Amino acid sequence: MKAILLTSLFFISLTSFAKTGEGEGIEFFHGTFKQALAKAKKENKLIFFDAYTSWCGPCKVLKTKVFPDKELGEYMNAKFISIGVDMEAGEGPQLANMYPVEGYPTLMFMDAAGKVKKKVLGLPRGGAKELLTVAKTVK
After folding, report:
1. Residues 80 and 131: beta-carbon distance below 8 Å
2. Phi and psi of 110, rounded to 5°?
């Protein structure tokens, strides 16, 4: 019985891995906001800033249903340094003073100096396609 259960779990995990695939979706930078700005400047890219909280339901939908989209990821990874920040932890409260948000999630598109070019409040109703359309308007 244990062998069957372990085998089933193994195949489920393989299926899950194959479904998401490596390199699909938005790849988020793991570092500070200041480091993300420096990387964007060095690579001549813009910043995509996901301001979220741990308790926010729509934020979780973005992470599980929108950000993993392959087409969105290909575009965003080529044009943006993406960073997600919990606005209630770590450097989040300090960044909330610099970039006040009216609700969560707030998605900001910025230049490499940190100037906000476009802001999206809430979960885009059109999902990944809508977010991609917005991202393509940011110069």
Report:
1. no
2. -130, 160
Please report the beta strands in 11-87, taking only residues with DSSP state E, as ranges in sequence order: 46-52, 80-86
Structure tokens at 130: 């809508």
Relative to beta strand 80-86, strand 106-110 is unpaired
CA atoms within 13 A on the CB side of 126: 8
pLDDT beneath 50, residues of the chain? 1-21
Gap between the Cα atoms of 25 and 61, Å rounded:
14
Q: Is the pTM of this model over 0.85?
A: no
| 35 closest CA partner among 79, 75, 85 | 85
Continuous segment of H or E residues that includes residue 95:
helix 92-98
pLDDT in tens, 24-56: 899 999 999 999 999 999 999 999 999 999 999
Distance between CA 12 and CA 15 in Å, rounded? Answer: 5
